[in-house]
TrEMBL record:
SUPFAM superfamilies tied to this protein: Adenine nucleotide alpha hydrolases-like (SSF52402)
The protein's annotated pathway: Purine metabolism; 7-cyano-7-deazaguanine biosynthesis
A biological-process GO annotation: tRNA queuosine(34) biosynthetic process
Catalytic activity: 7-carboxy-7-carbaguanine + NH4(+) + 2 ATP = 7-cyano-7-carbaguanine + 2 AMP + 2 diphosphate + 2 H(+)
Protein name: 7-cyano-7-deazaguanine synthase
Source lineage: Bacteria, Pseudomonadati, Pseudomonadota, Betaproteobacteria, Burkholderiales
Cofactor note: Binds 1 zinc ion per subunit.
Cofactor: Zn(2+)
Annotated PANTHER family: 7-CYANO-7-DEAZAGUANINE SYNTHASE
InterPro entries the record matches: QueC (IPR018317), Rossmann-like_a/b/a_fold (IPR014729)
Signal sequence, start to end: none
Binding site for ATP: F14, S15, G16, G17, Q18, D19, S20, T21, T22, C23, L24
Amino acid sequence: MKPIFENDRALVLFSGGQDSTTCLAWALSRYAHVETIGFDYGQRHAIELTVRPDLLKKIRQFSPEWQARLGEDHMIDLSLISQLSQTAMTEDIAIEMQENGLPNTFVPGRNLMFMMVAATLAYRRGLNVLVGGMCETDFSGYPDCRDDTMKALQVTLNLGMATRLKLETPLMWINKAQTWELAEDLGGSVMVDLIRADTHTCYLGERGELHEWGHGCGTCPACELRARGYLQYKGSL
């Protein structure tokens, strides 16, 4: 199967979670060459970084086409983020709403820095598409997940580096149930099972029991969103 955009080379922001794994499958179905980038920013759920290598190995084995298209993985140390901000994603503190109306799981500047670093790497590697799992449908109100933010960032990055980078966000306008559906469209039940059992989403870093929807504590906002989306996808809600 030929890629849709044979002349494009993509870099996927790949954390090891449900959304980024779906985005990686989406990119592999479209682009002739795909690389991945992950970030260690002192996240409380650093377990996501430990599942990445095995996930990538299994995705490489998914089909001969994907094996040929999936290139190098890059892991970047961005511990600077945890030094600059105190959030429930980087500190062992309770998850709660803040006075500004945003949950304290919001890490200020995280996605902006992720995209800037990814664009810098893409420049060096000759990649012209950045793919991220930002979503404005199920996004907890994070301002750096909005479509307007990504569009503005694309303009800024291209102006600042004299490039023609494209920022693609395939999940921007779909909810979690539709994200499960997209995974099935891309890779059938095998892809759904891979995401369910091998990815990590839980903010508290809990693996433990494998629930119907995947591993996790089941009570943090990320787990609740993932579980509800899975049940809706299966028609149980």
